[in-house]
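Appendix C: a fully annotated inverse folding record. The material below is reproduced so that readers can follow the format used throughout the book. The structure is listed first as tokens, followed by the designed sequence.
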């Protein structure tokens, strides 16, 4: 069943909806939105099981497509540019394919329409996601009294301090003054195999070529989410797709190189 998504809105102009990735929220994209709002009306929804949107027992791409369709309807959005990062990028691709009449253009940030679990060799970041969600589930938040304790617990397995700080944005205190995760950890852990595998080239097999709207992919050159071979496969689905590369940026390219990311977004059709 569709849910009503929490959101932020700012700016003027044609509508742009920005879809965050796994562990993300509208908060993570606020600074990017501020730099785009002179040209666009920016909508920043929290996807289900993230941010301040409802927790639900399921988390599939079809669930999120249905939520996004309701979002268009509730806010009377006739047509929009959709920018999606990582999981949000897969959601953007699926939604645009299902509802092309609602799309002005599609911008996909550092994700490919591929199965990241293929050939029984999980993509290394899939293994990292499994580790992260396992740690989140394992941590007894009722027994900790500070964010520093949480960071210390995560640091035993997650050495990247930037990643840990990003994850800690999902911590808040509940009405009883205990820490809790804002994301729905058990549901996301259960859904991880489908999050990382679905919306792949096989899913697009009977839908390609897609020529209904302009498509731009933005890739961080320090990331391995979109390989050169992946872009060859992308061109079979989206023959007119463009690829913008951002140097010195990894998977969280919008946070690592925000100015270059904005340039890439604004240069898309």
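Designed amino acids, in order:
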């Amino acid at each position: 069943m569709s849910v009503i998504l929490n959101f932020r809105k700012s700016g003027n102009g044609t509508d742009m909806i920005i879809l965050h990735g796994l562990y993300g929220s509208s908060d993570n994209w606020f600074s990017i939105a501020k730099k785009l709002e002179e040209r666009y009306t920016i909508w920043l929804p929290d996807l289900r099981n993230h941010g301040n949107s409802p927790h639900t027992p399921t988390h599939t791409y079809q669930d999120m497509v249905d939520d996004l369709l309701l979002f268009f309807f509730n806010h009377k959005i006739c047509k929009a540019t959709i920018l999606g990062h990582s999981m949000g990028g897969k959601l953007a691709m699926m939604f645009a394919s299902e509802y092309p009449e609602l799309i002005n253009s599609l911008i996909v940030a550092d994700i490919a329409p591929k199965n990241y679990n293929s050939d029984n060799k999980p993509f290394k970041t899939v293994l990292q996601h499994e580790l992260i969600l396992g740690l989140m589930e394992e941590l007894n938040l009722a027994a900790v009294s500070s964010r520093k304790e949480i960071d210390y617990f995560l640091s035993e397995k997650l050495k990247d301090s930037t990643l840990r700080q990003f994850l800690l944005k999902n911590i808040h205190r509940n009405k009883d003054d205990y820490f809790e995760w804002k994301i729905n950890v058990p549901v996301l852990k259960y859904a991880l195999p489908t999050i990382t595998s679905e919306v792949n080239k096989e899913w697009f097999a009977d839908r390609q070529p897609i020529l209904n709207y302009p498509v731009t992919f933005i890739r961080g050159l320090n990331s391995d989410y979109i390989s050169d071979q992946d872009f060859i496969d992308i061109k079979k689905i989206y023959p007119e797709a463009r690829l913008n590369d951002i140097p010195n940026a990894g998977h969280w390219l919008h946070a690592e190189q925000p100015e270059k990311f904005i340039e890439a977004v604004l240069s898309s059709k």
